[in-house]
């Protein structure tokens, strides 16, 4: 009895502190606005322009969720979430959704009680150095000053890698992408390490990107994805299946441009269920049957979003690699829509 009473007090205090809600989806609909925590500024993923308009890979996903839930991709408030406070903001209910290149780990999932809705980018940790340093491998960075964001999975991976390989680590802690870039360019460190996608974004923003190289080694697995609080499985399902809708749409050739035509003409049962022509998938999510259609129309399917923000034709210049569809040798694969 005592144990049950204690659990009841803890649960009640959690709700009072804003760490949980009876149903986040209901709160968002009542507010008529999705609050999305994003990177304060990482080119290609999330960054505001001079007028405060946000664009990027993660921004596009938030807009897709807003379109699915609120029928309008513009009904999103973007909140900059620093590396050190992003999960605290989510836990306190200051944001509904964290879409901020965050790695899915055991401790974040199990110990910190967050729920990752899926993987929207398969990444890995890399290293960038100045070309003039003459380094071609991470193994040559013994005793070289390396900038890394403190409190990140990158910092732990860096320490583990150097210990396993018997190398001397000269670590320079930074608090953010911006500080890491500044410390690297000012010479406080000779190398910068973070997710390889982040290095590509940072390098693309340099005035002299040709003078900097990303070393070939990838020293970790970094599955990045949107995160919600663990207490509301209903909201997690909405976010998860919106992500899956974007990925599945690419697989089945559904784009922001041909979606209206396919609604009328496609005979593929999976496409018909995805787009709400048949079935009641939307109703089961607490939405209408056009939720996925709106999500895809917002900024396109997964492939369209990738190409527009971080793909090979953008300054970021990322190849699909592991983020290609499973039919193309990648890892992008969704459960069936049935």
From TrEMBL:
InterPro entries on file: Bact_solute-bind_prot3 (IPR051455), Solute-binding_3/MltF_N (IPR001638)
Coiled-coil ranges (or none): none
Alphabetical GO biological process terms: amino acid transport
Highest taxon of the lineage: Bacteria
Stretch forming the signal peptide: 1-22
Residue span, Solute-binding protein family 3/N-terminal domain: 33-262
Keyword list, A-Z: Signal, Transport
Protein family membership: Belongs to the bacterial solute-binding protein 3 family.
Stated name of the protein: L-glutamine-binding protein /L-glutamate-binding protein /L-aspartate-binding protein /L-asparagine-binding protein
Naturally occurring in which organism (per UniProt): Paracoccus seriniphilus
